[in-house]
Write a structure and sequence with these properties.
about 180 residues
């Protein structure tokens, strides 16, 4: 992609709906997530995690998916677009799932997200489009499970993010493979 890594779409939605609504811009709030989004909060907001322990820190404040995954899934016959899989940010030009835990993504004029881990594909994907969960999983050359449904992060520095914003990637000194969060 020319011009380097970019945000292509932003989305949010109040409440706990699966898909998010595309927006002209979203505001990231440090320590909380996307302003007005149902998954924003300092502690866990996903229902299954709240049921287990509502005091857990929210490591899933922001959900990012690569637009290239949308391309792959659409080519496989799934009709979906940005925001449909619950992501707040759709990107181009970054292999999100290959990033290290602790990678910092500098977005636009100053917002910063720290990547915390992988989104674990769940049954909600199949409820949205039958067969989608399996399509978001694969195996690497060594037979290890690869979760392709995007990455999760926390907001370190707030700010407005909009489509077209550049993304600067700063990796930690020591690589740590992403795990599901």
């Amino acid at each position: 992609m020319s011009g380097g890594p970019r945000v292509t779409h932003v989305a949010s939605r109040p409440g706990h709906s699966f898909s998010k609504t595309l927006q002209d811009a979203i505001t990231l709030v440090a320590g909380l997530g996307v302003e007005g989004d149902g998954h924003a909060g300092a502690t866990v907001q996903h229902r299954s995690r709240v049921a287990r322990d509502p005091t857990q820190p929210n490591l899933r404040q922001v959900h990012l998916i690569a637009g290239e995954l949308h391309d792959e899934l659409n080519a496989a016959g799934f009709e979906l677009g940005p925001g449909d899989l619950g992501e707040n940010l759709t990107t181009r030009g970054i292999d999100l799932i290959a990033l290290s835990a602790g990678t910092k993504l500098y977005l636009g004029a100053g917002a910063v997200i720290e990547v915390t881990g992988l989104r674990n594909p769940c049954i909600q994907l199949d409820r949205f489009r039958p067969g989608l969960m399996a399509a978001c999983l694969s195996r690497d050359a060594e037979g290890r499970l690869v979760r392709k449904a995007g990455v999760m992060g926390i907001v370190l520095t707030g700010g407005v993010v909009k489509p077209g914003d550049a993304i600067r990637i700063v990796t930690p000194a020591v690589f740590r493979a992403l795990e599901k969060v």
